[in-house]
Design a protein that fits this description.
This protein is α/β, with parallel strands linked by helices and 448 residues long. Helix content is 39%, strand content 13%. The protein folds into two domains: 209 residues, P-loop containing nucleotide triphosphate hydrolases (Rossmann fold), CATH 3.40.50.300; 145 residues, P-loop containing nucleotide triphosphate hydrolases (Rossmann fold, 3-Layer(aba) Sandwich). The protein is built from 19 helices and 13 strands. Strand 12, helix 15 and strand 13 form a beta-alpha-beta unit. It is globular, with a radius of gyration of 23 Å. The relative contact order is 0.11. Bound molecules: adenosine monophosphate. The site of adenosine monophosphate has 13 residues, from helix 3.
Amino acid sequence: MNFNDLGLTEPLLRALRDEGYQTPTPIQQQAIPIVLQGKDLMGCAQTGTGKTAAFSVPILQLLAGRTQAAHGGGPRRIRSLILTPTRELALQISESIDAYGKYLPLRNLVIFGGVGQKPQTDALRRGVDILVATPGRLLDLMQQGFITLDHIELFVLDEADRMLDMGFVHDVRRVLAKLPQRRQSLFFSATMAPEIVKLASGILTNPSHVEVTPESTTAETVNQKIYFVEKKDKKDLLKYLLEDPAIATALVFTRTKHGANKLARDLDRAGIYAEAIHGNKSQTARVRALNAFKNQEIRVLVATDIAARGIDIDELSHVVNYELPNVPETYVHRIGRTGRAGATGSSISFCDTEERAYLKDIQQLIGQQVPVASGHPYEPTGAAPVALQPPNGKRPAPAARQQATFRENKPASPRPGSGETPSNKSKNRRRNRGNWWKKKREAGGVNS
Ligand code: AMP
């Protein structure tokens, strides 16, 4: 099956081709036709399955088809609401809608808390077709009169189980109370515990059900290692490990944009040529860094999860989890970028004291204990292995998820006393650029 078989229009097919998508994922194959028929949908699927396109692509098609009638000459009205628990997910969804809908005359906006509301309210005034929102900020702006849900035709509740885990059930119910009765609703959750089913039954009318197998197994070709290390020593441990020329290329994951920038800069200063990619960098800068990495002009690419989405690099030798993800599926996703197409790959994960709960969740999800690398110079004393709980057929406890802090948007603070200016920064980079390659050539590892 390919996307042409799903009844999608040319602007969407073209955008999907631009994204490099060749075949629809199982959830897309099942869900897209159902949504296009105007039916309600209950989807058991999690992040990483292609769920975002499964709901947003048909929503774009339906809304584009109704555009003329909806606001022929009048102001745009919010006709689709996508409610999602975290700022990180909201941003991801909005970025995806931008990409899938780039050839359609529809506007999407993402709103979440923790940042000033003015840019969001300004954009709302200009008119929006699709709104992606976290519950708190949505309710806040509704109360202030900036948003009405009276014209919603398509409603999506995404990651319902995490909404409940994070204590948003009352907020969700308050939003539901303001939606028009006549609407199409799509509901997604990774698990279907009784309270989830109960919530869904209050939202959906005669829904079609789709389910895809969770991505819970890690590629057997990936050699995984955990390094216990204090947070303050992570950078030095990474530099130490990068002395090994066997690490030909490394995709290093950090949780925040600021963290990605800082780490790339520090590695660069240490003579390891690195670039950072994240949501604050322009698309051009991201593509440039990615190409340099693919062509092995740089050895280390430091990325946040959002920026690394869709990155497909053949022959990536190492993935480094500089910070463990708080969503265990993200771990599977990250390490799946190496060891592709039968090649062997390695994943190195750093785990500090605060991240032990995340490691527990990860091991629970993948059903195995990740081997611990011991004897490295930054090993903390008394770092006991994290035990694997006996499987109970349930999703891992939400403890780690609740601690989740999504700080991608935290503004970068200047480095006090760094003395770095734009001009000496680029000088440093030029000076450092060749060092690793020089070393590797000398070791006979690179053809000059
Ligand atoms: P999601 O589950 O929506 O977060 O998607 C997970 C990742 O899969 C994202 O990086 C998407 O860009 C990518 N993706 C989604 N659908 C496809 C597809 N049909 N082919 C290739 N990649 C896809």
